[in-house]
Amino acid sequence: MIIIKLGGSLITDKSSYRAFREEETLRAIKEIASMNRSFVLVHGAGSFGHILCKKNNFPGPFKGKEFQVSRIKSDTTSLNSRIISMLLDMGMNPLPFSPFDLRRKGTFDYTPVLRSIESGFLPVLFGDIYIEGNEVKIYSGDSIMFDLCNLLNPEAAVFLGDVDGIYDRDPKKFPDSKLLRVVYNEQDFAKQENDVTGGMGGKYKAMKRISGLGIRTYMMNGLFPERIHGIESGDFHGSVIK
Ligand code: ADP
Ligand code: IPE
User: Fold this and answer.
1) What confidence tens digit (pLDDT) does each residue in 3-16 have?
2) Which of 42, 50, 103, 192, when mutated, tests ligand 2's pocket best, judged by the most ligand atoms within 8 Å of its CB?
């Protein structure tokens, strides 16, 4: 089994509210399915989550902002529904799971996700908001990736984004930045505006914890999804996290 995260940077235009990148998402999903391996999918929220969370100062108290909470929840769910529809069109058996619904007594209970796998379904989890007391909290797809890797011990964890892998600094800002084939330690992860889950810095922390479990952990460019086949041969274009 492999566990794959479709990053919000791949499936949406993160700078534009609720801009779904349908073609890119479909190409990535088709390529993943063509590997003929069992897999679990996780995806981010992209511009269906970050923009309104930032605007409303979430994570944080929600009193007086209940409508905004409902709006964000509806947006993240609608992004997930689009991905579920694509998988249905491909004849697969997807089931959606949000941290919002899995939260139990201060932790996330993945029992329904594990049961769904045993019963032959393809779980699709996603970064989302959830409510605890008077506060809105956020659980990222990157954190879900760690939890699932810990529970399922997959052969590999693959993060697909909109850049080729991890560079010594942000490749979008510095065209001369260098792609690191093997990443041993933290790099210059420029803090992103409009990102409420820590951007590449937050992702790196999750990836490092996954690789600490002894699971092969990759960061690759989902805009060139055919590259994912390289993880089988070891001849891949992207970064591996040590
Ligand atoms: P996603 O939404 O796919 O989960 P993020 O938007 O959180 O991913 O992070 C990916 C972005 O991080 C890239 O688009 C890139 O511009 C930025 N970034 C910042 N620093 C780096 C770095 N050192 N190496 C690679 N990408 C970086
Ligand atoms: C973010 O999840 C969830 C919300 C903002 C509600 P992620 O952190 O996994 O999303 P991306 O991949 O960065 O877009």
Assistant:
1) 999 999 999 999 99
2) 50
